[in-house]
Amino acid sequence: MKKFAITLSSIMIIGLTVGMVMQQEAMTTLTTQTQSEKLAEQVQEAEEQEPVAPVTDQVVDYSINNEEFLVTFDQGENWIGVPIEPQTLFTGEYTGSQQELINDSYVLTNDRAIFLYAVNQGNGITVHTISTTDQGQSWQETPISNIESRPTLRFRKMDLLNEQFGYLIFSGERTMSSESGYVYLTNDGGESWTLVGIPDTLRLIADGGFINESTGFLSYGTINPDAPDLYVTNDAGTSWTWSEVHVPDEYGEIFVQAEAPFMRDDQYILHVNQGPNGDYLGGRVKGEFHSEDEGLTWEFVEEVEPDELH
């Protein structure tokens, strides 16, 4: 009887041991399968993930892809995330594809990147810039304006003329054919912005910009303009004066919308286009005007074809 009990116990121990070994082998196999499945899923996800698509194929470029906003300073060898939500770059009256940034809403060079964006805040928005001077190793967010009474943005334009001086122009509060405009200047490369004055008008901004630290322009009239409506400041926005654009009679109903003046070989240049409804020679020809008094008055010089501009 004692032998039988010992034998039975031995059989039970052997059975338990075999069972435990078989269970361990099954768990090991299951774990290996699970790890293999996870690895396969990761490989598949990596293969399915869309590659970063640069916009311009330049050395310094950007991409908006998979809900990320990325920049590169080495033609795509390395992509750096910009720490903002991509949709904030398009807040306002914008109807593009959102695959490319709004023209003139950013500065992107090898030494500096600045992007203008806006965040919805209840019944209004806040306007900001985000910038880097070390190729994306660090980013600085700068609040520009808290515009609780302005529910959206329309016109926006930003540029740096040198390492320190730049301008930012935007508009909001649009009601039919009127709106409020805002001009900010920077003297530290975009780290801070100062609000300056604007002309006494509520017309819609058509274009604007500065050509140096003191001289800037704002052009008005986007809905059926019938004549150039251009203002100039020669004191960095402290005061503005209406600029006289002398359009010859034969072009009086053709060249109606002033663009932002610029410098060419130390000469003040202004192009006046045909507005949204122009049809003279296909609607693309512009009038070129020159100024000899820092933009106070302008005289017609010639017609300019699109491929001759600038």
UniProtKB/TrEMBL annotation:
Residues 1-23 form the signal peptide. Keywords: Signal. InterPro entries: WD40/YVTN_repeat-like_dom_sf (IPR015943). Transmembrane segments: none annotated. This is Oxidoreductase.
